[in-house]
Amino acid sequence: MLAAALLAAASAAAQQVTLERDSPLYAEPRLDASQVAQLKLGATGEVIGKQGAWLNIKTPGASGWLFSFNVRFPSQQASAGDSGAGSAAGRVFGPRRNVNVTSTIGIRGIGEEDLRQASFNADQMKLLEGYAATKQAAEEKARGSGLAPASVETMDAKK
Fold first, then answer.
1. Which H/E stretch holds residue 8?
2. How far apart are CA 57 and CA 62, in angstroms?
3. Structural domains present in the chain
4. Full-model pTM
């Protein structure tokens, strides 16, 4: 009885989403996972799980994983009207061009629980450090590209 009540509550809490662009649907939340379907712009689905920036969605044709950046959530759809203004692309390229756009792409899909479960990965840090350039190498590359140093005054945050 308790299990049925929990299942009903979970189903009621499921969010409907609409695809903002054509998107592959993967078997697992990884780009190298097998693709189970190719979803088209405007397709709808129900979010049945989350992992980082990935959403596990169920559509009438298939279930699988896709990036949360590829969908609009109900709160975005309600404010969109018929102009497509609820998506970032609609706000930028749609008929209403005088709208201020705020980007949140870097944080969508990462929740408090994801942050709690995060762990340090020394191998990933070494890989990241391998991409760093020394100051001297960066200056040489900039000069080689025709860039010149510029002095910029710092802003006083108290003003």
1. helix 2-13
2. 8
3. 1-141 (2.30.30.40)
4. 0.44
